[in-house]
Each structure stands twice: as structure tokens, then as C-alpha cells.
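G., the chain you wanted modeled:
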Amino acid sequence: EQTAQDNQRSAIAVSFPQLDPLYKVKVFNPYPSFRPTCGHIWPRGFPLDHVQGQGAANWTLAASSLARPPAIQQFLADEDPDVDAIFRLTRQLPCSFEGLPHELPSTLAIPHNVFLPYNAQATSHLYEAFWGLLLPVTVHGRVSDIWRAYLTQKLLWDVGQVVAFTSPHVIHDRVAHDYLKDFQSEHDLYLKTTAMVSFLASWASDAPTLLERLEQLWAAFYSRGFVELGDLRLAQAWIRDLLVVGYDFPDLRLGKIMKVDAPQGVKARSEF
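Predicted structure as C-alpha cells:
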């Protein structure tokens, strides 16, 4: 029988950004929390209307712990981090991250109901999040992983899981790009991300299983023009293939939403 001491040993130490109750649109820019050397910076796919702040960055951080490792873990990259073409056309690189404040756990876990983009570069999906690996193919590659991130986050919360960011483990030596071509390729990110986040914040399903909700949300993405029909069919085939190979979809864990109520500097335990 597992004891309280065993549970404490298995806890995963993380830092949580503390929600501002006056901040209505729940999007979060994680980059400033990791103390970038280049000043203000934002990740590719972050809603442009929140780039200049509006409460989307530099939230107070508090130490906490999780009962399970975060199901999706994004590792930052030094020198040429993942930013959009607008940043590259208007700001100077290289840029590195010094990490979270030393008195806090080095992993930044994102609370439920807070959206942010994560990419397909140096990102780990644990088994519990394998269902969220599918990348859409009817949008440009500069858009594909960001659309996947927003869709997956919405459903990740339904299984009691979170996305986490950690300090850089890689140095990104990016091959030469034409930034104006990147800008054109990222067109959907600039013009549709805010609408996508607004839609996802209000989307709800009463389907009793994750796989049903996954298909429903891909269908909703198609009906609202975020992806084309080919991606809906691909998602349906993806779900069938996961079932065929015996993938065990996680159960819904509604009502298990984590909360971090401890003041700054006080460690609180968050159970799923």
C-alpha cells in the first residue's frame, strides 16, 4: 500500500504561473519567464494581439508539484529559438534563455484553461499524450504543429494533464531561411490564431470518451476553416489506427482540474 511518504517522493516539482483574475483571455507567453537575453520575445503561433503584453506574460510564479509527469514537455532552444517571421524581420538574434529563477523548480507547467503554442521541435509526448501526435497536412508546415498544439491542449485538460516548458537542452543552428517567405507561410498564424483560441475556450463536448471528443474537435476545426477535409479524414484514420495497434486512450478526469492557490514561494501539492 502506497504511503504519503511514497507519494511525496514521486511528486514532480514544477513552477506554475499564477492566473490574474482580471485577465479575461487566458493566453500565456512562457518565454519571458525563462529570462531571455534578447529582451521581449514570443513563440511562433502566439496571438499577435497579445504580443505586447496585455497581461499575457511575466505572471507571478509559484512552486508546486504534480502527481504525474506532464504529458507534453517542450524544451526551449538557445541562439535561434522558435519565433515567427515578424520577430526575425524586426528583432536581433541570437537569443538564449537563462532559465526560471533559481529558487523555483526548473519546469514551468501551464495551468488548465490557459492556452499557448508549443512546437514540434525538441518536444516530448509521453504515452498518455500519443493521441495528440497527429500533425495536420492541409496547412503549411509553419502552421501545422501550432494548430496541433492548440487542439491537443484543449483535450489534454480533459484527461487531467498539462503542457510543460523547460530550459533549453539544445542549441538551434537554423539553416538559412527567406524570412519574407516564412512570413507568407505563417499567414494563418497571424490572422486565425486569436479566433482559434476564442473558439477553443468556448468549445465543449459531452462525449463520454476522449477518442470521441478528439474526432469531434477535428470535425469542428474543419467546419470552421482551420483545416481542410483531408485533415478530418486523416484524424479519423489516425484514431482507427491507434485502436488497431492497441493504444489505450486515457480516461476522462473531469472535475480533477488542478489549482495552485499557494502564495509565491510556498509549495503546494496539486493532485490529479
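Confidence is low (pLDDT under 50) at residues 1-9, 257-272.

Shout if anything looks off.
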